[in-house]
Amino acid sequence: MAVSSKVFVERFGWRDCNELLHPHSCGRSALINVRRFIASNAKYYIPVALLHFLKRALQGYSLEVLLDALSYYAQLIFGGLVNACLISTSVCALRQALGEFHLYTLLFVPSAFGAAFIAGVTPRVKRLQHTAIFQSLIESLLLQRGNPLTRALGASKTLQTLLFMCCSALILHGKQRRLHNGFWFLTPDRMPPPDAAALTSCSHERDCGSHIAQGVRNYFLIGLAMDVFKMLIGCAKTGLWSLKQLRLESATWLSCYMAIYRTSHCYLKRKPAASDSLKHIIASFLGGLSYLCYPKLSILSYALLEAMRTLWNAYNKNKTNLKKQKSRFGYSDVIFPLALAYLIHNYVFEPGKVSVLAGIIIDSTTANYAGNLQKRMRLLEPSSMG
Ligand SMILES: [Zn+2]
Ligand SMILES: [Zn+2]
């Protein structure tokens, strides 16, 4: 249940740090928190660093690859640690400076302040942090169904699929034209050479049947690896090791995605009526139908984020086609602190408004700081929180 600013001050404003935040003094807690934040970030980022290492090691292992993965891991932990330390110490500092807790100085302002630091981390760490938080924000807004558009989207799998198809067309086309450089589930076929023959025939080496079958097999295996990874995490959590927990959701979805995309692309290639770009856009759009195999709001949120990034890159490319100096900072550095502050604030005061993914990210990178605060407030005022 949401609390108004006035009600919050009446119920919690007068309490001190020990009641809401930590058992020891602020200074001692800050020191204890450093150790806890390092441990929670180190645990949380292991799969990310491992995947990064495996991706590069499969292309050719060397000591440099290992050192790069270790350096990335250290950067991820450092970013998460400083972010969490800045948030927790500024919560205490604001309580000391203002003499009481206020609804927005308890978490919103400290979170925005801590998150502003992320603008200064290395580009790859920043990109990962931005992706995780923006995706969680979009998913949370979709879950809230706060306006007619998100209400209609939340209730209709058909609309979600249609939106995913549009995102798929934008992203795959953007990826082929190098307007999108992030991760996407599918790698598009290469752009054909600009000659007349390429207009009415495929540019891949093998015959169409083998080309499609090879793609489907590869993406089935990638999806299978993802499903096995999910099963192992699920088994480790529950302690129940059983093959029954293996669901071939990602394998089915990715192989369908590839099958529809390549089949329609090969089919359209024989039609002379349209330009090559249009054929590729239509095939990418139709491939998005595969969303029906695995209709998850988290996947749709990621697709929306990546589609927006593709559009933004296309806009920037057109605007400054020549002598483009890539700036280290952008609008996303301004939006990120507000997005994280919004998620953390709502995670504590209105947990129903944020996605499960957002809750996991917040608690895993701050050693349950926000989750513990929420529990303490519930204990102090059982009827005040939902
Ligand atoms: Zn304190
Ligand atoms: Zn073909």
Description:
Keywords: Membrane, Transmembrane, Transmembrane helix. The chain crosses the membrane at residues 72-94, 101-121. By secondary structure, this protein is mainly alpha-helical. The chain has one domain (8-201, 270-317, 329-380). It is built from 18 helices and no strands. α8 (123-144) packs across α16 (331-349). The longest helix is centred in the N-terminal third of the chain and has 36 residues, at 63-98. It binds zinc ion (ZN) (2 copies). One zinc ion is lined by residues 17, 21-22, 26, 29, 92. One zinc ion binds at residues 202, 204, 208, 211, 266, 269.
Number of domains: 1
Give me the oligomer status: single chain
What is the helical fraction, as a range of percent?
Answer: over 70%
> What compounds are bound to the protein?
zinc ion
**If you average the pLDDT, what whole number results?**
88
**Low-confidence parts:** none
Distance linking N and C termini: 4 Å
Q: What is the number of E strands?
A: 0
User: What gyration radius follows from the Cα positions, in whole Å?
Assistant: 24 Å
Tally the helices: what do you get? 18
Written as H for each helix and E for each strand, in order along the chain, the element string is HHHHHHHHHHHHHHHHHH
Structural class: mainly alpha
Shape: elongated
Strand content: under 5%
How is the main sheet built? none
Question: Could you give a quick summary of the protein structure above?
Answer:
This protein has 386 residues and is mostly helical. Helix content is 71%, strand content 0%. It has helices spanning 5-13, 17-20, 26-44, 46-57, 63-98, 103-106, 108-116, 123-144, 148-155, 157-176, 197-200, 208-238, 249-269, 276-287, 297-319, 331-349, 356-365, 369-380.
